[in-house]
Design a protein that fits this description.
This protein has helices at 11-22, 39-44, 64-74, 89-123, 135-158, 169-183, 193-203, 209-212; strands spanning 2-6, 27-31, 52-54, 60-62. It is of the alpha+beta class and 230 residues long. It comes from Phyllobacterium leguminum.
Length: 230
């Protein structure tokens, strides 16, 4: 069995979990607090970042997009019409662009800042950076949410799925990132009806069930988090 070192409030970790589940791959989940700089974890990934997949023969594969490539080559290529990557090079390029948007741009501008202020800093020791939330950082990240949600709303309204005609890694990346924000009640879904309809379809996929069961110590999810129809 594979092993995934993850954190429930990490977009990249959720992305890897969704892909594993979409491809029917069982993996042991080990929650990692990367700020502790645990020696055993740093031996797997000297960068100290999440997620890390311990693959066949205990080979560590670090990084959400690298894990996705590995799973696509070892599992996805065998799934035919259930593969999360389109056939044509131009469609693949679009999916990869969107993955980079949601795991890169959205994470840099919104997700990781809100997760850090509302979750991680409350779990950290003072010497590791633990402190009360920074209201200035939260306000800046929340201002950026509107821009990203407008884009998701446009994609959802103009395409069958975010990356094109079929579910793809783009949908997994977006759902992973937005589910972190949704857990904390940071998204005003009524303002983005097309995005909400797309997200409801994503929440209804079997691969999403484990994410909806996530709970973080000291922070309960918003009431609608587990609802498939909200």
């Amino acid at each position: 069995m594979l092993t995934l070192f993850h954190h429930p409030m990490s977009s990249g970790s959720r992305y890897a979990r969704l892909i594993l589940s979409e491809y029917g791959v069982e993996a042991e989940l080990i929650e990692e607090k990367p700020w502790t700089r645990r020696k055993e974890f740093l031996a797997l990934n000297p960068a100290g970042t999440l997620p890390v997949l311990l693959a066949e023969n205990d080979v560590p594969i670090a990084g959400a997009t690298v894990i996705a490539e590995y799973l696509d080559e070892t599992r996805g290529a065998l799934k035919r019409n259930r593969r999360l990557l389109p056939e044509s090079p131009s469609e693949r390029a679009e999916v990869r662009r969107l993955v980079d948007w949601f795991l890169g741009k959205l994470d840099d501008e919104v997700t990781r800042h809100i997760a850090r202020e509302r979750v991680f800093k409350l779990q950290m020791a003072a010497e590791a950076g633990g402190s009360p939330p920074d209201s200035t950082a939260l306000r800046a990240a929340r201002n950026n949410i509107r821009h990203h949600m407008k884009y998701v709303d446009w994609l959802s309204a103009t395409r069958d799925w975010l990356g094109g005609a079929q579910p793809s890694y783009a949908d997994m990346a977006a759902a992973a990132a937005l589910s972190v924000l949704d857990y904390m009640g940071e998204i005003k879904w009524p303002d983005h009806p097309a995005a909400r309809d797309w997200y409801m379809r994503m929440k209804s996929r079997p691969s999403f069930r484990s994410l909806l069961a996530d709970r973080v110590r000291g922070l309960s999810p918003v009431a609608h988090y587990g609802d498939l129809d909200f």
